[in-house]
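ok here's the first one, seq then struct tokens
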Amino acid sequence: MTENHDTTGESGIENDPDVTRNPGAVNVSEDRLFELLDRYVTTLHSDDTQSRSAIIQRNPDLGELLACLDSLEHLAPLRPSRRGPENETGSVLDGIVAEPTAADQMSDAPAEFGKYVLFEEVGRGGMGVVYRAKQTDLDRVVALKMILSSRFASEEEIQRFYGEARAAGRLRHPNIVGIHEVGELNGQHYFAMDYVEGESLEESLQTGPLAANEAVECLQTIARAVHHLHENQIVHRDLKPSNILIGESGEPILTDFGLAKLFESNSAQTRTGTIIGTPSYMSPEQAGGEASRVSPRSDVYSLGAILYKMLTGRPPFQRGNPLDTLVEVMEGEPTLPTRLNRSIPRELERICLRCLEKSPEKRYRTAAALADDLERFLNGEPVEARQTGVISRIRRWGRREPALASRLGALFVASLIVQITYVVRENGDFPFHVKVMSLFGLWTVVAVVFQQFLKRRYLAGFTRFAWAAADAILLTTLLFIAEGPIGPLLIGYPVLIAASGLFFRVRLVVFMTCVSLLSYGVLTLLRGDMLEMPPQYPVIYAAVLAVVGFIVGYQVYRIRVLSRHFEHRRLP
């Protein structure tokens, strides 16, 4: 009784109305067929032989198809053991979260792979999985990396896998992981490399930022190793804390060359339009898909982002999704490190910010030049990174707080026009002039206050909508008190709708469109001269506002769809 109950319960097929029990004519609808196959695959992964046999017995006409699934399961790549406790939240080498599967819950018993004995999985990324292993012929512990897709890997994946091995294999540096052997066994591509006993820099930073001198010494060592890459005509392109391992002696060791690019390479991954790297640590030219502009200075930018993380405990740019992060990398400015950690010396902040310059030409020319400047800092000598000028600081502030900067810029221009007009007119209306300038002053104060709220993450969502409503109300007030025809000034509503799209929030665009339409309707009722217009004019204008809102919202929606696609696909 119990056995029969378990069997039918696991398979879920016994009472399935879409599956006919007649062995001579199995009739399975398309939806139910997929569900049945899914259940069968689940029994394969869970090694539930009873339920698997029950499904086969009840559906004999599907025997060949189910047997095919059995064969595919046998071709799956070997997983000798479950992940170690240090990797439950992500990969040691690639920093990419990989959800444990049923196959990951296998026995801890070592598995043989040619002349290697695999002990445990220590890292997993978008393309490969890494095991701690023992090379039996030389009696040494190594890290063995295998391509995830095994025999089903595409030619491009295989080329990239061997490209990583070649890139690292040609290097000889104490702070770069060494490659011992590259090969293939039974269709499984692999390479063996140094095994580093210890945690990654990403893991060590989980407890908080490092002291200034400790961070400088660590980055100086990494920068020297990166310069060695560049001397060998290699750009890493994926420098980040999770790709830096901390050895037993505390020395950082650079690893993971899956995205490394040879200077003379022209592979599919280096073509313009391909976004390569990790958003929070990639350079603006990488974020923009400008592969032709990727150079050693791109790695210098990533080194600056790593230094920022070591000093502040967070990367320079890290938003809720990859799209927002990429936009910040390309257009924004990071919060000054000293605002996040007041113990950071100003000279070190200047070094970090020089690495993070948007223009590659403004960064350190080489990773060695960065290491030299870090050494000057440690020795108490003047650093090469100088204090930026006023114009540069204003530009950086504008990138750091674009919403406030754009509003203050618009208010300044409008105030200047009003002031010039008042001066030119000999008999200007002083009370009206004071009223308008006071409104501009109030608008400035409101913008500054909302910017402060916007900096608080838990208030950011509400602040965007409140700020949009405040802008519409203030614009409507300005148009209401304005003297004479206000036709040209009505352009303000479409501008507000378009500006709301810069936040990449569809709901915000819809909200701004509705508020603008409502504000325009109220303005039409309050101003007598607008009621005297032909009735079709307000209707046409309202329709134009709705169309502008639809276009902006639709474009934001399209970008968001691409962003979700980007989130569910790992970077190349």
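and now the second one, same deal
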Amino acid sequence: MGLTVSVGQASHIGRRERNEDRCAIAAPSPEDLETKGLLAAIADGVGGGDRGSEAAQSVIHGLLNDYYATPDTWSVQRTIDTIVNALNRWLIAQSPGNSNGKAMATTLSALVMRGCRYYVAHVGDSRIYLLRDGALKQLTTDHVWNHPDLRHVLTRGVGLDPHLVLDYASNELMMGDTFLLVSDGVWEPLGESNILKCLSSESEPANTASQLIRAALDAGGRDNATAIVIRVDKLAGENLRDTIARNEELHLPKRLRPGEHIDGFVVEQLLHESRVTILYKAKRTDNARSVVIKTLKPDLADDERAISGLLTEEWLLRRLSPELFPQVEQSTSEPRSAIYYAMTWHEGATLEAQLDSGKKFSALEVQEIGIRLLKGLAALHRRDILHRDIKPANLHEGLDGHLRILDLGLARFGAEPDGQLNRAGTPSYMAPELHIDKPANVSTDLYAAGVTLYHLLTRHYPYGEIEPFQTPKFNDPIPPSRYRPDIPSWLEALLFKAVARDPKNRFETAEEFLLFLERGEKSSLNPRRHTPLADRLPLHFWQIAASLSLAANLLLLLLLLTS
């Protein structure tokens, strides 16, 4: 069951010449409601002439228009932060001089309700309240000067400062929760006791919003008065993503044999079996198209984390490009009868299989593979997705000329809880910081990409092969030219940067890595220099330095005594 709410809104010009308040509630599609949630926002414009109302209108319109156009994998905070900061830069660009009264600025208070949680984003002195179990709680903090004569002067707002900082908070939703988004033209004349009295009435949210406006004006309010009231009528299911909730109640399929059927697919052969997953090649019974079925081993039926990971992987693949990733195949049977998903089959082989068959990749081939790999990683990272297991075995080169990234089973996205150890992945491809349980990030994905290209060229690893549960030591990487003297110097320099021990010395983004790879010999990377002893072994360096200093002092003392 999805989230169900009742809403109402009202606004009045008060005793002002113009209404500089703006408010809106999104009407998302059922799919957007599940993946992005319900969005409501209020803004109170600041500025001379019509510029305050224009600022409020621009921010509300821009936020509601762009919120549902961002990737589903972005967290609520990243989504709002990205949109509002762009709007902030636009407002500042429209204000040639803030000191001459021509500023365009506004407050902003936004509420997102998704699944079983709510999220608040706020700047300025409009407010968001929560009424729960008869108690009223203010969820926002006013950003105004702490002085009686300056209590209406904002210290923060959209359009006031190039460095905009919004407040963010989130918490669990409860049945019957009532939220109020309100401008200072309502909360200031009424006070919390009168707000509580209005919200506690049995009226529908639309009537409550109008009642709040009338009460504020009757209490002597002269400012624009605006209110949004939202009541939670039904909660959504509790799970990582509502789109996969119904599948989590299913069971894992038994081990399948060639010729057996499952939901309109007939199994042809077992493709691969790991410690956790099983891959089958199958055909659709309706059009005979080949597919790959991915599921978990039957003995993992009680492993909630593994099941959630598989369903999340399917959810992610539905949102990625078919030229860079496999696509999910819809089954002919709805609802699905078991926990699995089917994806497109592509003729070809993984890069690991090509290495095992004896293929020797040239520098030019590795450059081309790297370009395609970095485009795929850039697409993931733009959606806030970390792959965390890039390696030749997870890169498939199709006969159609596309390189596809496989296996998002360890992927982490947005600000969702990880649920897994940081030390996830294949040891020889894991960055040094992952071996000491530092969190994965963009840099660790790019490091794995660098090791992958190194391994394709040399069949070795820059720091040697690392076994599971081993605590490796990372000295200087072995030059790939030791194994392949034909490697051009620019490519060796690029690989050294990609697999640098220190994350600060690596490429910052997939796009930067891609740019240098595309430039090839025209890239401006400097050849690698040997790491100084002081950086590699600082303790030994200073022990040697102290010993040499002591020896020099003793020699000087001896010369003084004998002279």
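notes on #2: The chain has a mean pLDDT of 88. The chain has four domains: 4-234, 242-344, 348-531, 533-563.
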